[in-house]
Design brief:
Elements: E1 6-12, E2 17-24, E3 32-40, H1 43-47, E4 56-67, E5 79-95, E6 98-114, E7 119-131, E8 134-144, E9 147-158, E10 162-176, E11 184-196, E12 200-214, E13 257-272, E14 275-288, E15 291-307, E16 310-314, E17 317-320
Parallel strand pairs: 12-13
Antiparallel strand pairs: 1-2, 2-3, 3-4, 4-5, 5-6, 6-7, 7-8, 8-9, 9-10, 10-11, 11-12, 13-14, 14-15, 15-16, 15-17
Length: 327
């Protein structure tokens, strides 16, 4: 059709193969996706047993002003009504056995309904880059129900087998909606440091200048998920049949060690019509060949809360050395 214009050119010889595909993404004349792929494969040599990993190639992808509504049908059921405009430029070249990546992506005016969070994300902006050695998010912004989230971060990739980096998020009255919990918003800074190696994983989270407003009335209702009488929804989360048997692998996976640490570097203020508390502390959990354990300390600096019409005042108290038995 006129909305999805497609052009393709293919040029193949025994020494070189090239493909160019142009895809029109919508009504706008400037909205196109271009993919150029060129492989310098020596076909006779490969048929004689030459190593295909040494074959040189170049791949270039350009997407300009992609309206995400064009691909919203491809999103998982947990993400509904995706919108926004995407620009992407990526170059992959080198050899098939050792490709080199250099890519950039930009999203503006993004929107999506996150079903599990019961929220509609709006005004989503993302600027990110990717190479073989580094993934960097220089800008992440979004709004939801009167609150907002800002962030940035970078992760270094070590020879394709490990990664290490830091992500910083700043939330301002970000809504927290979940069945069984009161309406809440979160304001604060979250810094996360991740280090993943061949046999170990470490995650450290620091929460600072944070506040939780409970029973707040400033949360706006999420936009309703669009419905259509001609579309039915199927539950994809049904458990597997009872007669399914899982065959264990012959060789057990190597044992990994995992370290998770959460630190409340500033006391978290929990404020609401019937609650006024401050909590601080640090908890860490470790798991490995010897089992799992957790320890740390949580401290209430002050506080009060109402229950059944009675007001209770909390004295400063500390819960220390929280330990899980090894398994």
């Amino acid at each position: 059709g006129e909305k999805h214009r497609v052009r393709a050119n293919i040029d193949v010889t025994q020494a070189e193969q090239a493909v160019r595909v142009d895809l029109g993404l919508g009504d706008a004349a400037e909205s196109w996706a271009h993919v150029d792929a060129k492989v310098h494969a020596k076909v006779p040599a490969l048929l004689d047993g030459a190593d295909w990993k040494t074959t040189a190639f170049e791949l270039t992808a350009d997407i300009r002003d992609l309206d995400l509504r064009q691909v919203s049908a491809l999103t998982p059921v947990a993400i509904q009504d995706v919108r926004g405009h995407l620009d992407l430029h990526a170059v992959v070249d080198g050899t098939l056995g050792k490709p080199q990546i250099d890519g950039h992506v930009k999203l503006r005016g993004g929107e999506a309904t996150i079903v599990a969070a019961r929220q509609r994300l709006k005004d989503v902006e993302l600027i990110a880059s990717l190479t073989n050695e580094r993934i960097e998010v220089s800008r992440l912004r979004m709004n939801s129900a009167g609150g907002s989230l800002r962030g940035s971060g970078a992760v270094s990739i070590s020879q394709g087998v490990g990664l290490a980096g830091r992500v910083d998020l700043q939330a301002d009255r970000l809504p927290i909606r979940s069945p069984g919990l009161p309406r809440m918003t979160f304001t604060g800074n979250i810094g996360t440091v991740v280090d993943v190696g061949l046999d170990s994983t470490s995650v450290e989270v620091e929460v600072a200048a944070s506040r939780v407003d409970v029973f707040t009335s400033r949360i706006k209702a999420a936009a309703a998920i669009p419905t259509n009488d001609n579309v039915g929804f199927v539950d994809f989360d049904e458990p597997p049949p009872r007669d399914v048997t899982f065959i264990p692998a012959e060789t057990p996976a190597p044992q990994r060690t995992t370290h998770i640490e959460v630190a409340l570097v500033d006391p978290v203020k929990i404020i609401g019509p019937s609650v006024d508390m401050e909590w601080g502390g640090r908890i860490q959990a470790d798991a490995g060949e010897g089992g799992a354990s957790a320890e740390g300390a949580l401290r209430s600096r002050r506080g009060s809360f109402e229950l059944l019409g009675n007001e209770f005042k909390m004295e400063p108290v500390s819960y220390t050395h929280l330990t899980l038995p090894t398994t």
